[in-house]
Amino acid sequence: LLNTPDKHLEVNDNIFITSDDVIKILHIPKSTLDVLCHQKRIPFYKPAKRRLFIKSEIIEWVKESRFEGRNKRKLDNDL
């Protein structure tokens, strides 16, 4: 399965994506992704020295780091 020429690999309804895909999704440089992986701050898999990510996990990781702005707090206090 990992030797497939396709850029995206599909297993159990989860789509595996490459570092290049994550860089495009997050709009970050490769060096930032490397640091996030090295510090184990982002979920990834490394079969056979190839770093892979599950797209749904990356999206969930972004959602978990959501920041509530001041306007949100003000609206909550007004309710």
Features:
single chain; 79 residues
Residue share in helices?
Answer: 40-55%
Give the assembly state of these chains: single chain
What's the β-strand tally? 3
- Percentage beta strand: 5-15%
What count of helical segments does DSSP give? 4
Count of structural domains: 1
What structural class should be given to the helix and strand makeup? alpha+beta
Which strand order does the major sheet show? 1-2-3
Explain what you see:
By secondary structure, the protein is an alpha+beta fold. The chain has one domain (9-78). Helices cover 46% and strands 14% of the residues. The chain has helices spanning 19-26, 30-38, 55-64, 70-78, and strands spanning 9-11, 14-18, 52-54. It starts with 8 loop residues before the first strand and ends with a helix. 5% of the residues are buried. The model has no long low-confidence stretch (mean pLDDT 83).
Topology:
Elements: E1 9-11, E2 14-18, H1 19-26, H2 30-38, E3 52-54, H3 55-64, H4 70-78
Antiparallel strand pairs: 1-2, 2-3
Produce a short descriptive summary.
This protein has 79 residues and is an alpha+beta fold. Helices cover 46% and strands 14% of the residues. The protein has one domain.
